[in-house]
Amino acid sequence: MRKNDRPLLVVIAGPTATGKTDVGIEVAARIGGEVISADSMMVYKGMDIGTAKPTIEERRGVPHHLIDVIRPDEDFSVAVYQDLAEKAIAGVAARSRMPLLVGGTGLYIRSVIEPYHFAVPSNPELRRQLSEEARICGREVLHRRLAAVDPETAARVHPNNVRRIIRALEVYYQTGRPLSQFHECDRRRETKYNLLMFGLYLERELLYKRIEKRVDKMVEQGLVDEVKRLLQQGYGRDLVSMQGLGYKEIIYYLEGETTLDEAIRILKRNTRRFAKRQFTWFRRDKRIRWINMAEQGGVTGAAEEIIKALAGQLRTAAKKY
Question: Taking Cα atoms as reference points, which of 25, 109, 35 lies closest to residue 66?
Fold first, then answer.
């Protein structure tokens, strides 16, 4: 398929706290678009404050997809995300609207724009055996085993994330290929979209100040009560969802392992580190056009810059959208 024949997809990515959500809404509202979230935490119902999920009012009537998809104790994978995102994008385009893929989860974005094929089937019996081994011997044992056969994936997966460790081992045991290599081969396939990719960033000092203010705001909005409610509903600390930023740190406080002030300090530190990892991931992609939020004058200026860059593409694609 020639590039000009492919459907147009706008991607807005970048580190946490740079304003991706607000910019995505502003652009979508002004050009007749819909947002497909690319955030691995916003998929969970009831996890709103800690994920900085936009409220209905903040969405300003702009349709959002892949937010509030599952309960915190349900399994969710990149393969599932890819399937749902591609269907959402197709639906948006069919309604003559512009699809905007917005978020900071790099693997989710890559699964859409670099079409991975997750063809390795699940093996319930193997999963059961590995889960039992993790329960008896400890999750660290499985993580060390993964590191021995697939160090690249092991470096990306936290030792507490048993579900992803088991899936990576499951792929290796069934195919003889590490999950990282499996993805690398599939990424060589050509993307199905005409991509326009934008990355939002701030200089480190400004970004870190925004992160600290954002965490303070989350606490003021009731983050502690949100985490407490989730625990009371039976969502334990070992769930993948409850290992997310803002949740695991507050659990330390609620379970008496630290003070609230210390939990907040750790959350700010972990968020800064997370933002640094995100920027490292995205800056490898040379297709991304970077926008300095401070120099551009904030959300409105960044949105105008994106719309201006889109102008030529919008005229070309007018018959399709």
Answer: 35
Are residues 128 and 112 both part of a single domain? no
Same domain, 153 and 203: no
Q: Identify whether residues 160 and 295 lie together within a single domain.
A: no
The mean pLDDT of the chain is 90
CA 236 to chain centre: 21
- Pairing between β-strand 8-13 and β-strand 194-201 as defined by DSSP bridges: parallel
Q: What is the span of the domain harbouring residue 139?
A: 124-186
% pLDDT > 90, the chain: 67
Higher pLDDT, 186 or 198: 198
Contacts 24+ apart (CB under 8 A), 230-239: 230/46, 230/47, 230/72, 233/46, 234/73, 235/72, 235/73, 238/160, 238/162, 239/72, 239/73
- The reported pLDDT for the residue numbered 102 is 98
Q: Work out the pLDDT band at 118, boundaries 50, 70, 90.
A: low
Q: Do 79 and 218 lie in a common domain?
A: yes
248 falls within a domain: no
List the structure tokens of 85.
């995102």
> How many whole angstroms separate alpha carbon 42 and alpha carbon 33?
19
- CATH number, domain of 166, equals 1.10.20.140
